[in-house]
Design a protein that fits this description.
The complex is a heterodimer of chains A (368) and B (361).
Chain A lengths: L1 H6 L12 E2 L11 H39 L3 H22 L11 H5 L8 H11 L21 H9 L13 H25 L4 H6 L11 H24 L23 H18 L12 H18 L5 H6 L1 H28 L13
Chain B lengths: L9 H15 L2 H8 L4 E8 L4 E7 L4 E7 L3 E7 L4 E6 L5 E5 L8 E4 L4 E9 L5 E8 L4 E8 L5 E7 L5 E6 L5 E6 L21 E6 L5 E6 L7 E8 L5 E7 L10 E4 L6 E2 L4 H6 L6 E5 L4 E6 L4 E6 L5 E6 L3 E6 L4 E5 L3 E2 L2 E2 L2 E9 L2
The chains are: A mainly alpha (368), B mainly beta (361).
InterPro entries (chain A): Imelysin-like, Imelysin-like_IPPA, Imelysin_sf
Main location (chain A): other
Pfam families (chain A): Peptidase_M75
Chain lengths: 368, 361
C-alpha cells in the first residue's frame, strides 16, 4: 500500500493494509442480523420480562408477610416473613445479572441491594435508625428519599435476622416491624417500576429488540449482542468476585465471613444459586446456541456442565459462613467454586464471544 | 497516550538496545527489526489467554515479547532512561517498569493500599519521575501518584487530580505541567468495572503544576455534555492538548467526541462530520498526534473505525474501516493502528492487541 500511495503522491495516513501474517487467526463471521434479533427477543421476552414480573410478585408476597407479621406477631409469622425474604431475594438474584437499563437508572440497583458494603454503611445506618426511630422512614414512600443503604434487602435482612430481631415475634406494630414492612414495600415498588419500564412496548424492550440508527441503546445487532453477552460475563464475574471472593479469596488468604452477603439469615448461597440459575436460564431460553456453528455447539454444553457443577456444590455449602470457612472440606468446595467460576467466565467471555465473532470477550468497550 | 518526542529509527533502536539484545532475538525477529523504520510497544493477550507486552516493528511484526501477570492497558516511555512502564488495566494494582532491550530486571510497582491504577501514566521529560493516574476508591477521587524512577520507582508522593474517574494523563514537553483527563465516572473495585454514576457524571480536564500538584487550570464540560467522559490525551504542536471522549448518553445522540485546548485558553471541540461521529460509535478508544505530519489519529473499537484529522484545521483527512480498531501511535509517516483481532499496521498476528500503543524512544 505504501508504494502505491507514494506513487500516487498521496500522504500516508495509516499503514494498515494487511499484507503479512505472522500467526494467522481466522475470525468467525458474526451471525446474521435476523438470528441475533431472534436471540435478543427471546432474552427479553422469555427471561428479562418474566424475571422482573416474578421478582415483583415475590416482593409483593414479602410485603404481605411483613404486613401480617406486624399485625399479628408470632414465631410462625416471623418464620413466614423470613421465608418470604429468602424467596424474594432468590427471585432478585435470578434477574440481578441484568445489570443494565432501568435496573441501573435512578439508583434502583443499589436501592434494591446495597452490596458490597465493606464499611458497613448500611448496618450502621439501620442500627442508628432502630436505636432512634424516625417515623418518616415508615410513612408511605418515605424510604425513597433516604440513604440507598437503608432501602433494600440488606437493611431488611438485619431487621429480620440481626440483633434484636426476635422481638418481631412478640411486639405488634413496633417500629422495627414497620420499618421492615416499609423496606419490603419499597422493594415491591421498585420491582413494579422495572416491570412497567420493561413491559412498555415502545420502551427499553423495543430498544433491545430493534437495534438501528435511531435506537437510543444499540446502533446495530452486534452492539445488542455484545450487551447480552456482557450480561452473562459480568453476571459470572459478580458471582465469583462479589459473592464469594468478598469473604474467601483462596486457600492461603484471610477470610472475612461477616462480609458475606446475607450471612445473618443464612442466605449467602441462596443468592449464588439464584445468580447461577439466572445465567443458565438466560443462556437457554434465548437459545444462544443457535448462533454457533455446528462444530462449536459444545461450548454451550461445557458452560452448562460448569454451571451445573457449581450449582451442585453450592447446594452442599454450609449456610453458616463462619463454619464454612473454618472447615477443610467446605474450603475445598469454596476453592472449587472459585476455580470453576473463573472457568465459567472464560468459557462465556472468550469461547462463546469468540465463536460468534465478537471480541467483546476481550473488551466490552466500557471505558478502555 | 504519552508519545511526545522525536521518532526513532531502527538503527537508533538497535544501537540503544545493544548487541546483547539483538543476540537474543530469533532470526525472524531480528530481520523484522532490521527492516523497521520505527519500533512500538503494546500490551497483548496471547492465544493461550496469557498477557504480555510486545515490541513491534513499524510493519507490525512482533520483535520481542515479555510476559505480564495480568492485562496491561496504557504505557509510558522515557527516551532518556530508555525505560518503559506498562500499567495494569483498571482496576489493576500493578505496573511493570522494564527496558525494552531487556537490560536490567523489570521492576514491579504496586499501587498502595486504598488505590488502584487507572491504566495510564507518563514520565517527566528527564525520566526522573513517573506520574500515574490512580483511584482513591474509598475517597472517590482521582489521584496522580508520583514515583522516583531513579530509586526503583519508590512512591514519593501524590497529587489530587481534582476530579473523579481519572483515566489518561500526560506531561507537557517542558515537564512543568501535568495534563489529566478526569473521565467523571465513579468506579470502585468492589464493583469491578461497573460505572456507578452515569446519571451524575463530572468529566473534566485538569492542568496541574508538576512540582507541587497545584491547580493551573480546570475545564469542566457544559451541562449538555456532562455524559461525555474525557478519557484520552495527546500533546500536539505548541503544547496543544488533544482529548478524546466516550459518550455515555443516548446512543442515537451525536455529541462532539474530540477537542483541543491550549494552556490558558478555553476548550474547543472539533466539529466532525455526522458520518464520522456515527462511525466512531460515540466511543474513541485512543488518540495520538504525529507532529511531523500534522496529523491526529483516532480509533474506535466499538465503531471499527480509524480516522485521521488535520491537526491544524481538524478536517478529516482519512477514514478506514478497521474492525476492533484499538491503539494508535505516530508512525514514521502517518498513524500506526492496531486492533483487538491481531492487526498491527500491515501485519496480523495471533494476539489481541490491547487498547494503546506507545512509540519507543
Amino acid at each position: 500500500m505504501l508504494n502505491i500511495l507514494r506513487a500516487a503522491g498521496l500522504a500516508v495516513l495509516f499503514a494498515t493494509a494487511p499484507a503479512f501474517a505472522q500467526e494467522e487467526t481466522l475470525r468467525p463471521e458474526i451471525p446474521a442480523d435476523a438470528e441475533i434479533r431472534t436471540v435478543i427477543a427471546k432474552a427479553v421476552d422469555d427471561f428479562i420480562r418474566p424475571g422482573y414480573r416474578d421478582f415483583h410478585a415475590a416482593a409483593g408476597a414479602l410485603a404481605g408477610e411483613m404486613d401480617a407479621l406486624c399485625a399479628a406477631p408470632s414465631p410462625d409469622a416471623l418464620a413466614q416473613a423470613k421465608a418470604a425474604f429468602a424467596e424474594a431475594a432468590l427471585s432478585w438474584a435470578r434477574v440481578e445479572i441484568v445489570r443494565t437499563g432501568p435496573a441501573i437508572e435512578d439508583n434502583r440497583f443499589e436501592r434494591i441491594l446495597f452490596y458490597p458494603d465493606r464499611k458497613s454503611t448500611g448496618l450502621k445506618q439501620v442500627q442508628a435508625l432502630l436505636a432512634k426511630p424516625d417515623d418518616s422512614t415508615t410513612a408511605p414512600g418515605g424510604l425513597s428519599g433516604k440513604s440507598v443503604a437503608m432501602q433494600g434487602f440488606g437493611a431488611l435482612e438485619f431487621v429480620l435476622a440481626g440483633t434484636g430481631s426476635e422481638a418481631l415475634a412478640t411486639e405488634a406494630d413496633g417500629f422495627r416491624c414497620r420499618y421492615g414492612r416499609a423496606i419490603a414495600q419499597n422493594i415491591e415498588h421498585i420491582a413494579g417500576e422495572l416491570v412497567v419500564l420493561w413491559e412498555a412496548p415502545d420502551g427499553v424492550q423495543q430498544a433491545w429488540k430493534e437495534p438501528g440508527p435511531g435506537n437510543p441503546l444499540f446502533r446495530n445487532t452486534q452492539e445488542a449482542m455484545t450487551a447480552l453477552l456482557g450480561v452473562l460475563v459480568h453476571g459470572a464475574e459478580m458471582v465469583r468476585d462479589q459473592r464469594i471472593e468478598t469473604f474467601y479469596k483462596g486457600e492461603d488468604s484471610q477470610t472475612f465471613p461477616r462480609q458475606a452477603l446475607f450471612w445473618r439469615s443464612g442466605n449467602t448461597w441462596t443468592m449464588v444459586e439464584g445468580n447461577l440459575e439466572g445465567l443458565g436460564r438466560l443462556m437457554h431460553v434465548s437459545d444462544m446456541a443457535a448462533l454457533l456453528s455446528e462444530d462449536q455447539t459444545s461450548i454451550i454444553g461445557s458452560v452448562d456442565f460448569v454451571l451445573k457443577s457449581m450449582l451442585r456444590v453450592t447446594g452442599e455449602m454450609n449456610s453458616d459462613i463462619e463454619a464454612a470457612v473454618s472447615d477443610d472440606s467446605q474450603r475445598q468446595k469454596l476453592d472449587f467454586l472459585l476455580v470453576n467460576g473463573r472457568d465459567l467466565i472464560g468459557r462465556l467471555n472468550d469461547q462463546y464471544g469468540g465463536a460468534i465473532g465478537l471480541t467483546s470477550g476481550f473488551s466490552f468497550s466500557d471505558g478502555d | 497516550m504519552t508519545w511526545r518526542s522525536g521518532l526513532i529509527d531502527r538503527r537508533g533502536f538497535l544501537r540503544a538496545a545493544g548487541v546483547a539484545f539483538a543476540a537474543t532475538l530469533s532470526p525472524r525477529s531480528l530481520m523484522a527489526l532490521e527492516r523497521a523504520d520505527a519500533v512500538y510497544a503494546s500490551g497483548f493477550r496471547a492465544a493461550d489467554g496469557s498477557f504480555g507486552i510486545a515490541t513491534v516493528s513499524e510493519r507490525g511484526e512482533i520483535v520481542d515479547r515479555m510476559p505480564l501477570p495480568a492485562r496491561a492497558h496504557g504505557m509510558a516511555y522515557s527516551p532518556v532512561s530508555r525505560r518503559a512502564v506498562a500499567f495494569a488495566r483498571r482496576p489493576g494494582t500493578f505496573a511493570m517498569a522494564f527496558q525494552p532491550n531487556r537490560s536490567g530486571d523489570p521492576v514491579m510497582i504496586t499501587a498502595p493500599d486504598g488505590r488502584h491504577f487507572y491504566g495510564h501514566g507518563a514520565f517527566s521529560p528527564d525520566g526522573h519521575f513517573l506520574y500515574t493516574s490512580e483511584n482513591d476508591f474509598d475517597g472517590n477521587r482521582g489521584m496522580i501518584g508520583v514515583y522516583d524512577a531513579n530509586d526503583d520507582f519508590a512512591r514519593i508522593g501524590e497529587f489530587d487530580a481534582l476530579g473523579i474517574g481519572t483515566h489518561d494523563m500526560t506531561v507537557s514537553d517542558d515537564g512543568r505541567t501535568l495534563v489529566v483527563a478526569n473521565g467523571g465516572i465513579e468506579t470502585h473495585p468492589d464493583f469491578g468495572r461497573t460505572k456507578l454514576n452515569l446519571d451524575r457524571m463530572e468529566p473534566s480536564l485538569v492542568l496541574l503544576d508538576a512540582r507541587d500538584g497545584q491547580l493551573i487550570q480546570k475545564h469542566t464540560l457544559p451541562a449538555t455534555l456532562r455524559q461525555l467522559s474525557t478519557r484520552h490525551l495527546a500533546i500536539g504542536d505548541k503544547g496543544k492538548i488533544w482529548f478524546a471522549g466516550q459518550w455515555e448518553g443516548a446512543r442515537n445522540a451525536l455529541p462532539p467526541l474530540v477537542g483541543r485546548v491550549s494552556p490558558g485558553d478555553d476548550i474547543g471541540f472539533v466539529s466532525l462530520p455526522e458520518r464520522i461521529t456515527d462511525g466512531l460509535a460515540n466511543y474513541v478508544g485512543a488518540i495520538a498526534v504525529n507532529r511531523r505530519d500534522g496529523i491526529v489519529g483516532l480509533t474506535s473499537p466499538k465503531g471499527g473505525l480509524a480516522v485521521s484529522l488535520d491537526a491544524r484545521t481538524g478536517a478529516v483527512l482519512r477514514e478506514e474501516r478497521i474492525p476492533d480498531a484499538a491503539g494508535v501511535a505516530p508512525a514514521g509517516h502517518g498513524i500506526a493502528v492496531s486492533s483487538y483481532d491481531g492487526r498491527f499496521n500491515q501485519t496480523r498476528s495471533g494476539v489481541a492487541w490491547d487498547q494503546h500503543i506507545i512509540r519507543l524512544q
